[in-house]
Fold this protein.
Amino acid sequence: MASSTDSEEPVPFDIRLIPAAAASWSITATGILAGPSAAVKATVVTCAIVVLGAVVLQRISKGRADTARHVWSGAAAVIVVALCFGGAIWLQMRSVAEHPVAAAAQNRAWITAVVDLEEDPRRLPAPGPRMVML
């Protein structure tokens, strides 16, 4: 008896998530490395590239049915993901940039932290040097 995998033809790779992943990671990396204003610029550039790519794809596959609907729904999904990631990284990097500890660190200030332990320290069972979890 032949298994079902023997009779099936190989399935092509599913690359539907690659544009959204590439957009989100590029916006996130740009925002982390260059700051909140760069995250906004990267989001705008990414959305423009997606729209341009959708126009090119629509023109290339002009003879196929329902192409415009599929191309623009995919482009809209990638743009929504890009806007969400752009907004999230903008908020995060803005809060980091405006945090008082970051401002003090830029001025090379000394910061003292007061910590109140609520539990006794516990030894961590890990290979290597002894570590304590506080």
User: Anything to note?
Assistant: Strands lie at 122-124, 131-133. Helices lie at 4-7, 18-34, 36-60, 67-97, 100-106. Residues 15-99 form one domain. The two ends are 60 Å apart (CA to CA).
